[in-house]
C-alpha cells in the first residue's frame, strides 16, 4: 500500500487500530474527534519509518501512547484536547527529527516522559495543561529551541534550575496564565539570544530574578501581574526598545523615578497601574528625550509617554 496521508475524523466507534498497524510509507496522519479511541497501533515505532506529521485531537479516551514510542522520523507532533492522556510517548528523547511539539488542553497530563524531550526541538507550545507540575528534564541540553510558550499551567509553581533552558538559540519566551507561579528561574539572564519576553496573568509573581533579565531583550511585556513590586535591573537592557506594563497595581514606582529605564526605548506603554505614584522622573520625560523617541518613530505623537502616565491615574 502506497498511502502517504490519512485523516480519520469523527469516528466515534473506533476504539483501536489493527495489530498490523499503519502503512509503512505513511507520512501524514490526523486523528480527530474519535472519542472512544483508547490506543494507537503498537507497531507504529517499528513498522513506520516515514511518518513526519502526527495530529491527535479530541480523543478523550486515549490515556497513553504505544510502549514502543513514536517513529523516529516524526518532525511535527500536536496533541490537542485529549483529556484522559496521562503520559507522553516513551523515549521521546530518541525522536531526534522532531522540531515542533504542541500540547493543548491535556488536563490529566502531570509530567513529561523520563529522559526529557529531543534536543532537535525548535518550537514548544504547552497550553492549558492545568496539572502540569514541571518542565521536561534536560531542557538545558536543547540548543535548537527558538520559541517556548507556557500557558494555562496552573499547577506550575516554579522552575527548577536543573531543568531550565539552554543559554543559546531561544528567541521568544511567553509565560501566561500560570496562577500559582511564584518565581521566574534565577538563570533567566543566561538566555543570551532571547529578544522577546512576555509574562502575563501570573498573580503570585512579585519580582524578577536577582540576577536580572537577559541583556539581549528587545521587547518586554508584563500584564496582569497584580503583585509584582519591583522592576530592578531594567537599565541593563541596552537593546530594549519596547516596554509594555499593564494591570500591575502592586507596582508603586520605577527605580530612581525611571532614571534606570533603558535609553534605547522606542515604545513605552504604561496602563492601569493605579498605585504608580511617580512613573517617570522629569529627567527621563524631558523634551530632549521625547524628541529622540519621536525621531525613532515611536509613535503617534511625542506626548505618548505623558498620555500613558495619565492613564495610570484614571
UniProtKB/TrEMBL annotation:
Instruction: Alphabetically list the UniProt keywords.
Output: Leucine-rich repeat
Q: Which InterPro entries match?
A: LRR_dom_sf, LRR_R13L1-DRL21
Among PANTHER family, the record links this protein to: DISEASE RESISTANCE PROTEIN RGA3, PLANT BROAD-SPECTRUM MILDEW RESISTANCE PROTEIN RPW8
Domain of life where this protein originates: Eukaryota
The organism's lineage?
Eukaryota, Viridiplantae, Streptophyta, Embryophyta, Tracheophyta
The residues covered by the R13L1/DRL21-like LRR repeat region domain are 132-202
Protein name from the UniProt record = R13L1/DRL21-like LRR repeat region domain-containing protein
Q: Which organism is it from?
A: Tetracentron sinense (Spur-leaf)
Q: Where are the transmembrane segments?
A: none
SUPFAM superfamilies reported for this sequence:
L domain-like
